[in-house]
Structure prediction request, 203 residues.
Amino acid sequence: MFQIVRISENNESLLKHLLVMDRSIRQYQILGDAAIFAVFQSKHQEFVEIAARTSHFQIPEKIQKQLARLSQKELSLYNGILLIKDMDTEKLSTEDVKRYIQLRAEAQELVTLGNGQIYIETESLSALAILVRNQVTHAALVSVILALLLGLLLLYLINKPIKSIARAIHQLGNGQYDHYIDIKGPRDIREVGQHLEWLRQIN
Prediction:
């Protein structure tokens, strides 16, 4: 998700750089100012660096191809403009400059693809979060049921010998000494049963 957001941010930066390059080369076409052309070259270099950084991310093939196509067209246009400028035989034509409009449209498409991928990743994470939440809820429900069953089992295992002790005490209290007292359960409860049996025997 982090990479997709970074890719989307880089795509938007590429679009902004193309806009500045478009404006710079149009201004240079009219004014012929070397400082303006230097800005154009600087933005081209930044464009290349951002595109290179973006291509190193693990990105969907469709975005990768669009980015490669955009970078190739931008480089071709830039080299063509440099060639015309260096030859100094003709000025930049309006058609040369207008090609940046097409590049900006392709960069906008790249931004749209990136934003669409963010939506896809967000939906995927949301579905995963719902799945995990449901699994945790089911696990908690199963844990509660198991704890309840275990509690009932423990209650039964403890309650049964206690009832046996209570019955034995009641019998001894009523003078009924003819029934053998044998209490099952934990050691402490068995010891109580043994003491009750000893009382029965001495009576």
Notes: The chain has a mean pLDDT of 84. Residues 94-173 form the longest helix (80 residues).
